[in-house]
Amino acid sequence: MTVGWLIAGCGQDIKIVEVKPMNISFTKTTQAEKIKAKATEVHGGEIPGVTFTYRSENSGVATVDSSGTVKPAGNGSTAIIARAPNGVEGESFVKVCLPKELICHPADKLELKVGTAAPIKCHVTNCRDEKIQTQIEMTPTDTTMVLKEGDNVFIGLKVGDTQIGVKVLDMTATVAVHVDEQEFLPGMGPGSMSARKRGGGKAGKDDKDPYGTGGRFDHIIKGMSGN
């Protein structure tokens, strides 16, 4: 009985090699899938103790190691082959469609005014130019100049130029941000005559720091910071 199992394990009676899963789909470079091969004899019974070797028909699309772990390498389709010692083979079909491009709007520069908000909208496309759902991180370079509100909305805090870093999967982008001085209509806001009477700060544009303590935009900054 022992000799019989050894002979079977060497592939003498193997008629079919079944590979599971039969189909694999990859959409991210970080994914991996381990396939499992099974050898059966002519009557359908499983033959234990069989050692398989694995290969990829196109390693530019997907690779496989000696344990049967499959990883994506590039867009396209291929087959992963499991081969028994007697030459009988089974296969698993692999399709790979990876993220292609990170697109942001505005792409060049986000224009803000102190106390106003605007979004940066980004999405990722795949190999078929389809939008794919994935988590996108957006981080201001200077949090004293721009405040992040929610996932993709930013509020200007003080005049100047900065950047928003965008990261998703293994892709990154940078969106420039320019924050301009807030404009108020005559008779309105902290730069108006009524505001000056209340001690809200100077109205002219020659203020040294209109966003600092006592400046005419001080109440906007305090409101956004929760102070």
What is the structure about, briefly put?
Helix content is 9%, strand content 44%. It has 3 helices and 20 strands. The strands form 6 sheets. A 4-stranded mixed β-sheet has the order 2-10-9-6, with no helix packed on it.
Can you characterise this structure?
The model is unreliable at 1-9 and 190-206 (pLDDT under 50). 9% of the residues lie in helices and 44% in strands. The protein is mostly beta strands and 227 residues long.
Strand arrangement in the largest pleated sheet: 2-10-9-6
Shape: rod-shaped
> What order do the SSEs take from the amino end to the carboxyl end, as H and E?
HEEEEEEEEEEEEEEEEEEEEHH
The proportion of strand residues reads: 35-45%
- What structural category arises from helix and sheet content? mainly beta
Q: Give the oligomer, counting copies of the same chain as homo and different chains as hetero.
A: single chain
Helix content: under 10%
Largest sheet properties:
4 strands, mixed
Using only CA atoms, what is the Rg? Answer: 31 Å
List descriptors.
rod-shaped; disordered N terminus
Write the layout of secondary structure elements.
Blueprint (H helix, E strand, L loop, with lengths): L1 H8 L6 E5 L2 E4 L6 E2 L1 E5 L5 E2 L5 E4 L5 E3 L4 E4 L3 E8 L5 E8 L2 E7 L3 E5 L3 E3 L1 E6 L4 E2 L4 E4 L5 E4 L3 E4 L3 E9 L2 E10 L12 H5 L20 H8 L2
